[in-house]
Design goal:
about 240 residues, single chain, SH3 type barrels, 8 helices, about 45% helix, alpha+beta, 3 domains
Length: about 240
């Protein structure tokens, strides 16, 4: 393995952790010695990486824009293209435009060969014939409420057409191929509930937020549902 590749892998490994990780664990993951790891840490610091920590304590990469652009391997280019094209095809206009802008921004900073591979990618997202029709404004309102930790009030229509009034604390929005589903804490039921967006009526965002951090609700819900956290939630 070349040193440049190893440094890129070390950066990617550090990005997966939000808390300090032991040097020995990093060295084992890269199959290198601790001495080599320490040299690589100092090299990354010299290049502008905000790496906190020291030997015997652990290391943590602080997010920032000081690092020079890194070359993305082909598989990561494919993942970016496919993921962002899916967002552009299956979400409301505001988020779809953001996905296209992100793809253009990433292409701009890639080396020429990788930029061409991204733009000429053969990966495409096909139409969803069974997708429920949710008004874009409703989808955007729910997504923004999740991000802002704002309470929502709406009427919810079940499969028999019966309506109930709900006030919820929205903390996650799932984009499935057929439908979008809101995960929230329901004040009426005093428990977690899931709501299909195509069955929500008379949606309104309330001025008052909810006091529990969204991350806390998300972890409690994941535990209750037996859902493993993704890599962004791992320590």
């Amino acid at each position: 393995m070349s040193r440049a590749v190893r440094l890129t892998q070390l950066l990617q490994l550090l990005r997966r952790y939000r808390r300090p990780v032991a040097g020995q664990a990093l060295a084992d993951a890269l199959d290198i010695s601790l001495r080599t790891l320490y040299r690589d840490i100092e090299t990354l610091r010299a290049q502008g990486a905000d790496l906190r920590g020291e030997a015997g304590v652990g290391y943590q990469l602080v997010p920032g824009d000081v690092l020079p652009p890194m070359t993305l391997p082909p598989a990561e280019v494919d993942a970016l293209v496919l993921g962002l094209r899916w967002v552009a095809a299956r979400t409301e206009p505001a988020l779809a435009d953001a996905a296209r802008d992100a793809l253009a921004r990433i292409a701009h900073v890639l080396p020429a060969a990788r930029r061409e591979a991204l733009r000429d990618s053969g990966l495409r997202v096909g139409p969803s014939r069974n997708a429920a029709k949710v008004p874009p404004a409703r989808l955007q309102t729910v997504r923004e409420a999740v991000g802002a930790q704002q309470r929502l009030r709406f009427a919810y229509e079940d499969v028999q057409g019966r309506r109930t009034e709900r006030v919820v604390w929205p903390f996650a929005l799932g984009y499935f191929d057929e439908v979008q589903v809101l995960a929230a804490w329901c004040e009426a039921r005093e428990d977690f509930r899931h709501f299909r967006l195509d069955r929500i009526r008379q949606l309104r965002t309330l001025a008052e937020g909810y006091g529990v951090p969204r991350a806390t609700l998300l972890r409690r819900w994941q535990k209750a549902q037996g859902i493993a956290p993704d890599w962004l939630d791992r320590s």
